[in-house]
Write a sequence for this structure.
């Protein structure tokens, strides 16, 4: 279950905090409390149950006194005016302390997050969708959970990067359950990041550098950056791969096209969602869609060089 702030839970704690602080500060005496409407312990019971369900145990028997603190405060006239009383400030501190305990407990129980989306999410430098994207993390990958920010973002560590991901696309998990498996292997994202770094590189027949590169030279250099050797030639690269069906096609697979006739004439790297990155003769390294009329017409098959 994702960690979420519960407004009603916070109100219950605020009420309990005011009750205890008012009774013990002398602002409302025991006698005054007895003269008021009989104390309702339902709020206290509900708060204790909510704490227990979240794995948080009250540290002090006197910290959460039975009674409806907000009602007592209202009857004592302490909620009139715009100035917060010391008891109200203390009650707010109790709410924050309780939330901090719940957060600490959540982070102890959940040491990682599992990406749960249709394709990939962005790891941002700051908890904002406008912040710099450090890298992408694909569906099914696990990252180490470090912190929770504003109940909307998780601070995580993935590979060599630390940043923020939207919590709505992640499931809290124990990182130890995934460590050492394909879920924590960052090779796929590293390959894609390397491919992205070539965007805008001009096309050059036979080229294998950032000053000019052809389609198979591009795939050769991208995978070669990680010690994965490929020959320079689309047909030769296909022979080193294992064919996969359209349903099996996944990010990191190579996609092949018959752009020069009946045989393989072009190759790119599949990104997911029908998109692939490649060095085109007209535009250099760009991202295109398999559903564009030209590529839909010339598409042959996908093949997997290795499992990532």
């Amino acid at each position: 279950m994702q960690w979420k702030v519960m407004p009603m839970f916070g109100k219950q704690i605020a009420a309990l905090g005011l009750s205890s602080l008012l009774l013990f500060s002398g602002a409302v005496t025991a006698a005054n409390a007895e003269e008021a409407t009989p104390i309702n312990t339902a709020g206290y019971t509900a708060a204790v149950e909510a704490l227990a369900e979240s794995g948080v145990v009250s540290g002090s028997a006197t910290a959460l006194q039975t009674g409806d603190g907000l009602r007592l405060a209202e009857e004592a006239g302490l909620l009139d005016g715009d100035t917060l009383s010391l008891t109200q400030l203390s009650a707010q501190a109790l709410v924050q302390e309780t939330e901090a305990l719940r957060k600490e407990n959540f982070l102890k129980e959940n040491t990682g997050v599992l990406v749960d989306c249709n394709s990939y999410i962005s790891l941002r430098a700051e908890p904002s969708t406008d912040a710099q994207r450090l890298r992408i993390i694909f569906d099914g990958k696990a990252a180490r959970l470090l912190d929770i920010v504003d109940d909307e973002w998780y601070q995580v560590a993935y590979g060599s990067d630390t940043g923020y991901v939207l919590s709505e696309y992640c499931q809290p998990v124990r990182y130890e359950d995934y460590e050492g498996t394909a879920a924590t292997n960052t090779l796929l994202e590293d390959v894609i990041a390397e491919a992205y770094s070539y965007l805008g590189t001009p096309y050059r027949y036979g080229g294998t550098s950032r000053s000019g590169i052809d389609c198979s030279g591009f795939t050769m250099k991208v995978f070669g950056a990680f010690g994965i050797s490929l020959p320079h030639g689309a047909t030769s690269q296909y022979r080193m791969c294992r064919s996969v069906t359209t349903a099996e096609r996944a990010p990191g697979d190579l996609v092949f096209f018959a752009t020069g006739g009946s045989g393989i004439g072009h190759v790119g790297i599949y990104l997911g969602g029908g998109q692939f990155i490649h060095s085109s003769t007209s535009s250099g390294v760009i991202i295109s869609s398999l559903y564009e009329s030209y590529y839909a017409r010339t598409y042959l098959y996908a093949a997997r060089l290795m499992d990532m």
Q: What stands out?
A: Residues 86-109 form the longest helix (24 residues). Confidence is low (pLDDT under 50) at residues 4-44, 56-70. The CA atoms of residues 36 and 139 lie 58 Å apart. The radius of gyration is 29 Å.
